[in-house]
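Hey, resending since the last one bounced:
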Amino acid sequence: MAERLAYLLDRLGRAVHNLQFTDGLNPAQWGALRFISRAKPATCKPSALADYLCTTKGTISQTLKSLEIKGYIRKIAETKDRRVVRLVLTEAGRVMLTRDPLWHLEAAAAEMSDEITTATRVLSQYVKKLQGECGFKPFGVCPECGHFSGNICGQEGVPRCGLTGEPIAAREIEQICETFLSATN
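The structure tokens again:
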């Protein structure tokens, strides 16, 4: 069964990869747009994107250059340190994401309503294991993070990051973070 699962994941990966050659974009560009739309502002930088997509900074530089030329993203230099660049979607980038080819996967998954919880749990464990074995940096969202706490300064229900001590804005709870700590780390 393990061999069959590996085969099926390979086939699924190839199908997903091929779906993303659409609307003048390639898989890396779609991945960058998705990341920028879902990442916390502090995480939305080229180095984090390279780690997230498991690629080199040079490849990400070319991907971002192409997306910038197409008008889908903007690079904004930090005011404190002009060498630090944050990535933001433009309105054209948000419109492009409404045509994201991965909606095909969501539609197929929605048809598996009874099995989706089990599939999500199993695939999450699979990804976590492979990330650890392959040395890929884990990314995730606050409620699944080992740093996450629902309290700040003794105030119940105010979420904070246990790493930085910073309060977490409600809109950022489900955004991707590069300081994610897997519960098993």
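The chain has a mean pLDDT of 86.

Sorry for the duplicate.
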